Amino acid sequence: MKPLFFSVCTVAVLFSGCISVNLPKQEIRETKTYDISRTATDSFPFRVEILPFRSDSPAKFKMLRRSGTLLTADEYNKWAQTPSRIMTQNFRSAFRSATKQDPAFKLSGNILSFELDEPSRSAVLSTAYTVSALDGKEPLFSCTLTSRIPVEELSADAFARAMEQAVSTQVADIKKRILDSVKPQ
After folding, report:
1. Among 40, 54, 113, 172, which is disulfide-ready with 126 (CB 3.0 to 4.6 Å)?
2. How many whole angstroms separate alpha carbon 79 and alpha carbon 28?
3. Pairing mode, strands 70-79 and 62-67
4. Is the model's pLDDT at 137 over the cut of 70?
5. pLDDT at 107 over 90
6. Nearest CA among 88, 83, 93 for reference residue 53
7. Peptide bond preceding 24: is omega within 30 degrees of 0, i.e. cis?
8. Which H or E run includes 180?
9. Is 15 helix (H, G, I), strand (E, B) or coil?
10. Which backbone phi and psi does 150 adopt, to 5 degrees?
C-alpha cells in the first residue's frame, strides 16, 4: 500500500511541473476619492434655509461618464460624498448669513445631471432649483441651470476640478437671482 501511495505522489509531483494553468493577470488599481466641498468665507445678507438636494441617480458615490446615450459608472474613481450631499453642503456653506434679517428664503434643488460628457469633453451639472419665501407657499422663482465646464483631459482629476467650478458657478447664479428678486422694482 505504501509503495502505491508513494508512486502516485511522485507522479503527481512530476506532472505538476509540466502542467501550467493560464490564469488571467489580476490588475490592481487604487480607488481614488474626490471631495469638492468648499467652505465659503463671505456671508449672505439674508437667511436662506437650504433643503437637502435630491438626486435620482443610482450611482451614489461613483463618478459617471457619458458617451452619447451610454452612461457608465467609474469603479475606481468616486466622490467622497453623494452628489446630493456635495451640493447641499456647498450651498449651506455659501448661504451662511451674518445677519438674520428679513426676508428669509428656502431653497430646494433636484440634481438632473452630475457627469463627465466625453464627446464634448466637459463636466455637466444640471440642477432644477426652487426658491420661495420661508413663510410663503408660492415659489419666488424656479429655474433649471446647466453648467458645462470644459476639461483639459478625460481624467477623474480634471473632472473633479471642472465639477467644483460648475458648483461654484451655480451657487453664484442663485445668489444673484435671490438678490435681484429682493431689489425694489
Report:
1. 113
2. 20
3. antiparallel
4. yes
5. yes
6. 88
7. no
8. helix 156-182
9. helix
10. -65, 145
Quick one: which of 151, 76, 169, 168 has its CA closest to 115?
A: 151
Paired with 71 in beta bridges are 66
Q: Predicted confidence band at 182 (pLDDT cuts at 50, 70, 90)?
A: confident
d(CA 53, CA 111): 7
Q: Say whether pTM exceeds 0.70.
A: yes
Distance CA(181)–CA(185), nearest Å, equals 9
Angle between helix axes 83-94 and 156-182 (nearest 10 degrees) is 40
Question: Is 14:144 a contact under the CB 8 Å cutoff?
Answer: no
Main-chain phi, psi angles of 28, to 5 degrees: -110, 120
Q: How far apart are CA 39 and CA 131, in angstroms?
A: 22
Model pLDDT, residue 34: 92
Given a contact cutoff of 8 angstroms between Cβ atoms, the answer to whether 123 and 148 are in contact is yes
Query: Taking Cα atoms as reference points, which of 179, 178, 168, 169 lies closest to residue 90?
Result: 168
Strand, coil or helix: what is 73?
strand
Please list, in sequence order, all residues whose beta carbon lies within 8 angstroms of the beta carbon of residue 142, skipping any fewer than 6 positions away.
128, 129, 130, 131
- The yes-or-no verdict on residue 26 having pLDDT over 90 is no
| pLDDT value of residue 6 | 65
Residue owning grid cell 493577470: 25
Q: Please tell me whether residue 144 adopts helix, strand or coil conformation.
A: strand
Q: Find cell 467622497 and name the residue.
A: 80
